[in-house]
Amino acid sequence: MSAPHPTSSTPAPWKKLFVSHLEKLGSSPEFTFATLHPDPAGAQPRVRYCIHRGFWAALPENKHNTLSKNPQVYDSDCPIFTSDSRMEKVYELFATGKGKGSREQSLSGTGGGGPAEACYWVKEVMCQWRIRGKCWLLGVQDIEEQNSGTVTVKGELGRYMRDLSQDSDNSEDAKNAKKWSWPLEIQNVFENLSPTMRGSFKNPWPGHAVSEGMKEGEALGQKAGSLMDEAEEVARKNFRVAVITPEEVECVDLTDPEKSRRWRWTLAEEVGGPGGDGQEVKPVGDWNEVELWP
How confident is the model at residue 1 (pLDDT cuts 50, 70, 90)? Predict the structure, then answer.
C-alpha cells in the first residue's frame, strides 16, 4: 500500500520562495546533483551539474514548443531535469533504489528511485537550497506498460501530483484529468529543449573510449526534431526525464552576516516522509519546519 499523498491540496511551504529564487537564475538554472555510486568497498559519492527544467506536471511555457499539451489539471513540488539513459547517474539511481536495479534495467526504461540531493546556489539573493529525496527516471518507450518500474514510478509520482480539478466546480476539469497523458508530458519535456540539446541524445556513448567508435545513428553535433518522429529512434531510446520527489528541503540565507539563518522543511512521517530528526519543529501542512543556525 502506498503512503498517503504529501501536500495534497496546497504547494509545499517552501516552494513559493524557491520558485522566486529560481527566477533569478535565468532561463537555464544550474544546480549540482549528487548520487551514490555502487562499489564493493562501499558506495562512493558522485556529483555533476544539471539544468532545472521546471516541475513535474507543471512544465514552463515555451513559445518554441508547438506540441499539443496536457490539460493543466495537475501541479507538483517535484523538480525535473533530463538525462541520457547511458549516463552513470541513471545506473546509480537504479542500483541504489529499493529494487537494486541492474545496468541493463537502467538502460531499458522507467524506474530508479535511488537517494539523491540537488543543490542550488542563488548568488543574487545569497541563498543556498538543498533538496533531498528520491529520483525517478521516465522513458517514453515503456511508460504506458504495466511493469514493476512503471507501476512503482507512477505510484510514487502520483502521490506528489496535486489534482487541481478536485478544487474546481467545473466538470470539464474532471474530464481533463482523465485525459492527462504520461507519454505526452515526457514528449513536452523533450520539446522544450533546443534542437541541439535534443540532438545530444544521439551522441556516442558518454564516457566510453573514442577508440570504440560510434554506433549507427550516433554522432556529435546533431540536431533532433520531436521525440516521436520516426527519424528520432536513437534519441527516443536514450532520453529520460528525471524527477526528484523531495523529502527534506533546506534554505540557507546568507544575505546579512549578522542575521544568517537556515530553515529546514521535512516531510511528515504521516505522508511517507522522514518526519524530522527530533528537533523542535513547527508543523506546516504536511511538512515540519525548523529554524536553525546557518
Answer: very low
